[in-house]
């Protein structure tokens, strides 16, 4: 459920010794709140992962591209960072899992147990857990 810079750091720090390959972190910042932490979240994720994929996480009434740009600005402060932006969260999850190799760990951060994506005035059905399951099957990591 890591949705603050500190929580992102704790999660990414805690997995370092468990991973033989790359740490791939999918991260986004919520809209209409805590604008100051967006760049810090991006910097934290990029500093502690091998690949950072910036995406949406409940943009609410804000422009998802603007939110992602703020997170990316922070991520780009990390000198060795590899950063990609995939605005659509479903596509970002699929991409993160598709580029993973044996020994890599993909962390989908931010939404946790939430079952909706707040976009504009709607809460659209969306569950990271279901999307990860589908992406794992599509990428051939688990049998159908």
What do you see in this structure?
The protein has helices at residues 5-15, 37-48, 64-75, 89-98, 128-138; strands spanning 23-27, 51-54, 83-85, 105-108, 116-119, 122-125. The chain has 144 residues and is an alpha/beta fold. The protein has one domain: Protein-Tyrosine Phosphatase, Chain A (Alpha-Beta Complex), CATH 3.90.190.20. A 4-stranded parallel β-sheet has the order 3-2-1-4, with helices on both faces. Strands 5-6 form a two-stranded antiparallel ribbon. The longest helix is centred in the N-terminal third of the chain and has 12 residues, at 37-48. The chain is globular, with a radius of gyration of 14 Å.
List strands and helices in order, with pairings:
Blueprint: H1 5-15, E1 23-27, H2 37-48, E2 51-54, H3 64-75, E3 83-85, H4 89-98, E4 105-108, E5 116-119, E6 122-125, H5 128-138
Parallel strand pairs: 1-2, 1-4, 2-3
Antiparallel strand pairs: 5-6
Helix pairs in contact: 1-2, 2-3, 4-5
